[in-house]
Amino acid sequence: MVVVRRRLFQAPWEFRESALFTALAVVAGFVIQIASSGSGIAMPHLPFNAIALSLFAAIVLCTGLVLRNTPLVKWLGGIPLGLCLILAIALLSLIGGVIPQQASAKSSLPVLLGLNQIFSSWPFAGAVLLFLANLGISLSWKLIPVKPQNIQFILFHAGFWIALSCAVFGSSDLQRLVVPINVGKANNLGYTMDSDTPQQLPFSIFLHDFSLEEYPPQLLLYDPHNDKLLMNKSQAILEVRKGTTATWQGIEVLVLEYLPSALPGNNGIPQPADRAKGIPFAKVRINSASAQREAWISTGSPLLKPDAAQMDGFYLIMVPGTPKSFRSAVTVQDEKGHETIANLEVNHPVNFIGWKLYQMGYDEKAGRWSKLSLIEVIHDPWLPAVYLGFFMIMAANILFFWNGIKRTEVKK
Amino acid sequence: MIVNFNTAAELAIACWATGSLLSFFSGRTPALKIPAFALSFAGSAIMAGFIAFYWSALDRPPLRTLGETRLWYATLIPLVGFLVEYRWKIGWLKYYCMALAAFFLAINILHPEVFDKTLMPALQSPWFVPHVVVYLVGYVLLATSSITALHNVYMQLRSKGNHTGESVSHYLALLGFVLLTFGLIFGALWAKEAWGHYWTWDPKETWAFLSWLAYLGYLHAFRYKIDQSKLQWYLALAFLVLLVCWFGVNYLPSAQNSVHTYTQS
């Protein structure tokens, strides 16, 4: 059999045409990026982005359906072009996965090409838009006429189309603001990450209380000559509790007593105290080559200096544990009389008139004595559409398992 | 804790090694089949027992540090090998699987991680376990798919046809892809609750997306009826992207602001 090699641009188009087209599109994207002096894309806000997306969807669907038998549209919605675009998106993402993504004031070539903000650059946007067109056209062929055996295909591809397009077109409507509030005060101004000018919120937040819980404190050995913290022999992080033992080169430590919350008392013996005021204290026995001694050590607080135990030129210190949880008791209200009282905590955001409120941070220098709470407020009107896409993809996955199991049974 | 781990890991590796040896000779002496399987299986059972013990000692699922996730891979990868032997009657895969599991445990023995007992607030979420478990199982399947593909490539180079092997690597990749998709979406839903947005191009997210695209590409190439034997190369290499995503990300320049590095300052 003689294999006749298809010439470039001889129908039907396949991988070579697709690769050429994709490469040209990406290069064109970089040219536009440079021509617009690296400023990236500014997507219009609601309702204009929604109109643009609807128009785009309509054009893609109509092209796919009306011209479905023309060679050009067959190629536009085909797998070869889809694969090339997936590769292009993957390569551009690879740049974003290696080069740190942050704004830069320098005007070097990578910055000009938008490599440091690749996901909002013209080449990436172009590749995604073409990919949406490709995906949309192939979807249109399966949508009409609809067949039961295509349900899984439709759910997966339509779900992906909806999630991706709404995430891209709706990105301009995402508002993320940080609201700093002191205990006993209210605030209705939020800051974006890259601007010092506050923005007015449609509601105000009153902070009743901020509280932080820590994990048990940790034992470390400090070497003042080299200004180094030394890990113990087992290389594990040592949580202080009664009976904890630790070994460093020639030094053995045993925790005899542990008071999670105490204040210094008479004769240097700490007395248990209220959690709000007290700090962790531990009585330790230290064995070294030269001597054995016992001492009280503590983590210290903004008001109390920490106690360390010295031996053989080293200091045994106790550092506060990492935060376990922190929460803000708040009242949120708007001018129309909506009001919510809530406890904001990491992983437990609260909804209020279309906004989501998150416990974000606090004054880390003050630790659990912080009187400042940072609340992040987020408004994303496109979220339900993106989630619809996610759930369609997951439904397709569940169908896959169902069908896959059934198919194996038939084979048997 | 680390002493206990070394004992359990060395015992498991010994079980897999003797199990493999016996299994290797069971071709001539069929009576060895049952003890061979029992020993190989015992290796995974020891690791499963260790994970259960470690879990209760930590008061949290040991799924956070890379060292901890390697425990799971070491336990689960041989099980996939046994399942494939049972389902498709392919015997050689389990040797690769046990070798890979032993390799993972060896990394843990040689480089004891700084096991941090504390769990930062953002990780205390009901999404934590499903997100990580789905990824774990997905990675295990894709690792096995990659091993199978590598074996297929080797068979091709010795010009031996191997259609069953090709369909095994394909089905494992397909199943792995479905689990990657779940993992990606669970991660997005969790991120919305914990960090405020479902997608922020965090380096780990970017690499998870890249791995997902790699397998998405494979499935479409397969669908387009590209020569299956050529695609074995693709499947064998696709796992490299997953490896970068899994532990390479921490060493990339882009990782300095990632929420997935878990390093303590």
Counting DSSP E segments of at least 2 residues, the number of strands of chain B comes to: 0
Largest interface: A-B, 55 and 49 residues
The low-pLDDT segments of chain A are none
Number of helices in the DSSP assignment of chain B: 8
Order of helices and strands of chain A: HHHHHHHEEEEEEEEEEEEEEEEEH
Report mean pLDDT of chain B, rounded to a whole number.
85
**Describe the biggest sheet of chain B?**
none
Strand content of chain B: under 5%
**What is the structural class of chain B?**
mainly alpha
| SSE order of chain B, one letter for each helix or strand | HHHHHHHH
Count of separate DSSP helical elements of chain A: 8
**Beta-strand level of the residues of chain A, as a percent range?**
25-35%
DSSP helix fraction of chain A: 25-40%
**Dominant shape of chain A:** elongated
Distance between the termini of chain A: 38 Å
Oligomer: heterodimer
What is the strand tally of chain A?
17
Question: What is the first-to-last residue Cα distance of chain B?
Answer: 24 Å
List keywords for this structure.
heterodimer, A: 412 residues, alpha+beta, four-stranded antiparallel beta sheet, 8 helices, B: mainly alpha
What's the helix and strand layout?
The complex is a heterodimer of chains A (about 400) and B (about 260).
Chain A lengths: L14 H21 L12 H19 L4 H6 L2 H20 L10 H4 L9 H22 L7 H19 L5 E8 L3 E5 L8 E16 L3 E6 L4 E3 L14 E4 L2 E13 L7 E2 L6 E10 L3 E7 L10 E3 L2 E6 L3 E11 L5 E7 L4 E3 L2 E8 L9 E8 L3 H29 L1
Antiparallel strand pairs in A: 1-17, 2-3, 3-13, 4-5, 4-12, 6-7, 7-8, 7-9, 9-10, 11-12, 13-14, 15-16, 16-17
Chain B lengths: L1 H24 L7 H26 L7 H23 L4 H18 L17 H30 L5 H32 L8 H21 L4 H21 L17
